[in-house]
Design goal:
12 helices, single chain, alpha+beta, five-stranded antiparallel sheet, five-stranded mixed sheet
């Protein structure tokens, strides 16, 4: 695995280290004193909720009730305080675009002096943030009520796997319920995906596992979704911004997903939409994780688009106009969207350098996303080859999920592997039995043949 992952980094041109000049610029930026642009919000009881091991903390939150509305105060790391458009750190970020996560290491968007230090919303220290105030109605509709630069102090670093209800503010679960209600009203097919992990067991073999998303993760994600929807509406109304767009899923992809569900023994009624079916699946069942991975593989490609009055932005997964403003330590474009939201919410013109950035960012983000997606795909192929190595000759049950010019694509349920097989006179949904011929981790390659 270690050798294979190093090879993937080389193949995909993923740079972990920063040059001495960029590191020096990050060190200088991290020492920048806080100025008069930030109001003091350290009395507000912000907390963070992330994986236990995370120290690059983008988001902290506080909630309060106002009649039947939930008021979300969402503090986002103020990366724009440390990094200016056109400076050395910004130029490097345009080359990287996103943080790339692989099983052993991550290649960060910014040097760790910022991403895990001065810009991270770590507990019990004062940090600069951009605080979005979002009103969430009883119907789950969100409205951006204010945006400000502020000094915040997180009270606690909560972890997904250990957090309790008592740790969380009133309204946390209700906010998630309202956002889901609004999604259902829009018939949004958004799904949250599991983590795929590879573990080594006692006899030295590797196994491929799925870590289902915890309820706390999904509840936490609702706050980002609420904020991003509110930001998108405000920016679009002001005739500016950069939006995340995704075309509608076509009928062929839905047919493939239905065949995949069948491969895993999951009953998906014909009249039930994907979003409803996904939410009905038990999170503790590994078949759910395997199916959600199939959803991820079949999802339409998302991209970024600047404001265009002739082409309203549309994101099919959320069934709405959507922007991203809540992960600036991990995505370049979020920093630019945040600066635009600050301007619009405070009745100021969007700075020219931010507006110009919206024209450059789609290309930069596409290049970065493609690099990250390729690395993730190759890491998955490596994991599949490692898991299957030594099992050559074994026969597996499979279901056809798609057709190609030179054969078919099959889904094996255990382990959850997608593979191409030469086969004739079969249709999507048909059951097959396939034999593993080759599992080569060095080439990140597996090969099956049909036996019946």
């Amino acid at each position: 695995m270690a050798v294979g992952l190093d090879g993937i980094r080389a193949d995909c041109d993923i740079q972990e280290a920063f040059s001495g000049e960029v590191s020096a610029a990050a060190h200088a930026a991290a020492a920048k004193p806080l100025g008069g642009d930030h109001v003091d919000r350290t009395r507000r009881p912000f907390v963070t909720l992330d994986p236990a091991s995370s120290i690059d903390l983008d988001q902290a939150f506080s909630l309060e009730m106002a009649g039947d509305e939930i008021i979300l105060h969402y503090a986002i790391a103020d990366v724009g305080w440390f990094v200016q458009p056109g400076d050395l750190l910004d130029t490097e970020a345009f080359e990287r675009a996103v943080t790339v996560y692989l099983p052993d290491h991550r290649a960060t968007l910014y040097p760790t002096e910022l991403s895990e230090g001065a810009a991270s919303l770590l507990p019990e220290v004062d940090r600069p943030a951009v605080v979005f105030t979002v009103r969430v109605g009883s119907d789950g509709v969100t409205v951006l009520d204010g945006v400000e630069r502020a000094i915040v102090r997180s009270r606690a670093k909560l972890a997904y796997d250990t957090v309790t209800r008592e740790d969380l503010p009133d309204g946390f679960e209700e906010l998630h319920r309202r956002i889901e209600f609004a999604e259902d009203a829009r018939s949004a097919p958004r799904v949250e995906f599991p983590e795929q992990e590879i573990d080594r067991i006692d006899d030295g073999r590797y196994v491929l596992r799925f870590r289902p998303r915890l309820v706390s993760e999904e509840q936490n994600a609702a706050m980002s979704l609420a904020t991003n929807l509110a930001v998108a509406a405000a920016l679009y109304g002001a005739g500016t911004g950069l939006f995340r767009v995704m075309p509608d899923v076509d009928e062929r992809q839905f047919r493939r997903l239905r065949h995949s569900a069948r491969a895993f023994g999951l009953e998906w009624p014909k009249d039930v939409p994907l979003s409803t079916f996904e939410r009905s699946l038990p999170r503790s069942d590994p078949r759910t994780s395997a199916f959600l991975l199939a959803v991820r593989r079949s999802a339409g490609g998302a991209s970024y688009a600047p404001f265009d009055s002739d082409q309203p932005p549309w994101h099919s997964a959320v069934a709405a106009t959507y922007a991203q403003a809540t992960a600036p330590l991990r995505r370049l474009q979020d920093r630019y969207v945040i600066e635009a939201a600050l301007a619009v919410a405070n009745d100021r013109p969007v700075p020219d350098e931010i507006q110009a950035g919206f024209e450059r960012l789609p290309h930069a983000m596409s290049r970065g996303d493609q690099r990250a997606n390729r690395a993730e795909r190759e890491a998955l192929e490596l994991a599949e080859a490692v898991v299957l190595a030594g099992r050559e000759g074994e026969i597996f049950d499979a279901v056809v999920v798609d057709e190609h010019d030179r054969g078919v694509e099959v889904q094996i349920s255990e382990p959850a592997v997608l593979a191409r097989v030469a086969a004739r006179r079969v249709d999507p949904g048909d059951d097959l039995r396939v034999r593993l011929v080759t599992a080569d981790p060095e080439r990140r390659f597996v090969e099956f043949v049909r036996v019946s």
